[in-house]
Amino acid sequence: MAAGEILEVTATDPGSVADFDSFCRATGNVLLEQDHSDGTFRYRIERKA
């Protein structure tokens, strides 16, 4: 992915909340949005340079 592109991920694992938070902090990417409804977790992550 190029810098500035946005990745949208869906997951069903409740542990993904901590995983994606840690991933973004470790890589410098930005967690733009996270949402949870009906057992599905959705994340929008912006790729940084």
From TrEMBL:
Domain (UPF0033): give its ranges. Answer: 1-47
Q: Which CDD domains match?
A: SirA_YedF_YeeD (cd00291)
- Mind telling me which InterPro entries this protein's record contains? TusA-like, TusA-like_sf
The molecule here is called UPF0033 domain-containing protein
Record organism: Altererythrobacter epoxidivorans
Question: Organism classification, top ranks?
Answer: Bacteria, Pseudomonadati, Pseudomonadota, Alphaproteobacteria, Sphingomonadales
